[in-house]
Amino acid sequence: MTPQRTVLIVDDDRNTREGLKRALQGNYIVVMADSAEKALPLLDERTVDIVLSDIRMSGMDGMTLLQKIMARSNPPIVVMLTAYGNVETAVEAMKLGAYDFLTKPVNLDHLDILLKRALHSHEVESENLTLRAQLDNRFGLENIIGQSDPMREVFETIQQAAPTQATILILGESGTGKELVAHAIHRLSSRAKGPFIPVHCAALTPTLLESELFGHEKGAFTGAADRRRGRFELADGGTLFLDEIAEIQTSVQVKLLRVLEERQFERVGGHQTLDVDIRLIAATNADLAAMVKAGTFRNDLFFRLDVVSITLPPLRKRPDDIPLLCARFLKEFSLRNNKPVEDITPDTLDILSSYSWPGNVRELRNVIERMVVLSRTPRLTVRDLPAALRSAVQAEGPRASTVLKADSSGSLAPESMADAERVMIEAALKRNNENRTLAAGQLGISRRTLQRKLKEYRNEKP
Ligand SMILES: Nc1ncnc2c1ncn2[C@@H]1O[C@H](COP(=O)(O)OP(=O)(O)OP(=O)(O)O)[C@@H](O)[C@H]1O
Ligand SMILES: [Mg+2]
């Protein structure tokens, strides 16, 4: 049973007050005031869920009362009462925050329906607000879920760095949430109302990337039929997100360095120097510092980018976050697919938590989506797990599982983690007769990442 709600009736006409009171007092606690001036202190004295207020009253009118109520924190629902033929004012009232209005004489059936509907939508809204607040405070920041120590550190850095103009470098394995973090930083910055412009550097050849970034003049190269504005121009007043920054060629690195130093550039084939006001965020899953040492990434550019760096921990280093992420994705996909899957059995969660997730959160998200789509019960069980995942956890054996359990205390030696990953990769290759595309697919990583890892393990050429 929901507790009885309180309705405050504000009207200077005694008959209206008494009529409404009679209609409502069976279902609500009813409080009355014969003027706006007397209504206001009542709101401080007690919890009022709904205010029913006349518009035209002697003394302070209903519109002024409405504004004063809306200025309060956590205001009640306000429904205005208006004489027939005064609908314009009532519409004005709704713009000021009134939930709805009723014309006098009040149709009591209509009143009943309206109040129920108002209370319901108010409840849903405050539930949403509470959920969001809980998510923000306890389980993460913006849409980034996590409550493990390494993620808390990440949230702290984001909150400190976001409001500044500093260039930010986001590092982390594939699927750890780099793009998500870039978005969060933008939304938490003073540029939130400005554009967020992403550029996926790996997808383009150096020539195309250059014109993508800086734009080009008509006829600058074959195919440049028109003048085109680049991403730097588009991001003016906002944030430019350079994803997979390690992939850009030295020729473009030089140009990028200049924009970062001078905040000025020319379009390809152009002479006019353009100024931009941008905040830069870059991300990569490569070891940029190692690339600098190897001479494949410019030292000076690296230092420009690495003003504040945020390193996202791989999922296997924070198994504590796995149940939370599962719950979030379960909700997301059961809603999206309209399937009432509500729960995961503890032993299934155990297996999910012992797996080493080479594809990180992206892989976990994909696995949960698949499980929800294919499930026939409201509870996900071990039988719903992808076979590949189950056998990977088995192949890793108790060793890998205990290794991973030890990891939750944060005391795991990185060598053993690398070992666990290697066992998984070898098992996936064996299952797929050395077919790397299939193995990579099952592991939830790209073929390229698999090649890179094999290169490390087997000393192979990528
Ligand atoms: N902490 C998290 N909470 C909720 N969702 C997450 C989290 N981390 C990642 N995700 C989700 O996982 C997926 C992959 O994240 P994202 O694209 O940001 O990773 P990435 O680090 O940019 O990967 P890549 O290096 O492959 O580009 C997205 O669907 C994202 O929403
Ligand atoms: Mg990404």
Characterization of this structure:
It is built from 19 helices and 18 strands. Residues 398-416 have low confidence and may be disordered. A five-stranded parallel β-sheet has the order 2-1-3-4-5, sandwiched between helices. Strands 9-12-15-8-16 form a five-stranded parallel β-sheet. β13 and β14 (273-275) form a beta hairpin. It folds into three domains: 5-133, Response regulator (Rossmann fold); 146-313, Rossmann fold; 316-458, Helicase, Ruva Protein, domain 3 (Orthogonal Bundle), CATH 1.10.8. It has 462 residues and is of the alpha/beta class. The chain is 50% helix and 16% strand. The chain has helices spanning 14-24, 36-45, 62-70, 87-95, 108-139, 149-161, 178-187, 206-214, 231-234, 250-262, 288-294, 299-305, 322-336, 346-354, 360-374, 387-407, 414-431, 436-443, 447-458, and strands spanning 5-10, 28-33, 50-54, 77-83, 100-104, 140-141, 144-145, 168-172, 196-200, 215-216, 228-229, 239-243, 264-266, 273-275, 279-284, 308-312, 343-344, 379-380. The longest helix has 32 residues, at 108-139. It binds adenosine-5'-triphosphate (ATP) and magnesium ion (MG). Magnesium ion (MG) is lined by residues 178-179, 243.
